[in-house]
Amino acid sequence: MQRRTLLTAGGAAVVLGSSLTLTGSAWAQDAAPADAATTDAAPADAGMIPDMVIGAADAPVQMTEYASFTCPHCADFHATVWPQLKADYIDTGKVRFTYREVYFDRFGLWASMIARCGGEMRFFGITDLVYDTQRTWTASGDPATIAAELRKLGKTAGLTDAMLDECLNDAEMAQNLVTWFEANAEADDVTGTPSFLINGTKYSNMSYDEMKVILDEAAAG
């Protein structure tokens, strides 16, 4: 399970082309002093952030995943477990699945903003792209390069430059996302990723075979 310092609502980064705008001080150590501008952000409102959900509303099993787009273990889960989970349980009406982002760093937040830029209909498709190419878009460690790579993924998913500009420059949304994540993480005691809630019980990362046993028991009531 990935365990790192969680990003707090004291700071949120917004991509402005190849530069960054920072609010607050949480990412001060990551910002380039010559390129970063500090602005006042509106009060964050976690209630404005919708959950991203897939699956039948009346499914017997309610499942929530907490994951970070920059977490290698999360990428592995989405490569090895997610396809089977979706085919066997979500698509068959047994599981209603909610994906909630965890933010360890600004890059994960940017990826989240792009995934959400396409709305609920495109979210899970963009999520697949982000995880499938995680090693590629995170490889440089350079903020401008990572921002450009994430924009490419968004355009691959059908987002326009105008849509991406609007989403990635939305400082209020960035702040709201971090506040929303903080509230969720505190409420569900999330300390690492990936973490799962299955009908209210928390679990850490596991194989598909292990998850299948838990889901079958939960579905049986």
From TrEMBL:
InterPro entries for the chain: Thioredoxin-like_fold, Thioredoxin-like_sf
Record Pfam families: Thioredoxin_4
Domain Thioredoxin-like fold: 50-217
GO molecular function: isomerase activity
Domain of life (superkingdom): Bacteria
Keywords carried by this UniProt record: Isomerase, Signal
Signal peptide: 1-28
Name used for this protein in its record: Protein-disulfide isomerase
Originating species: Loktanella fryxellensis
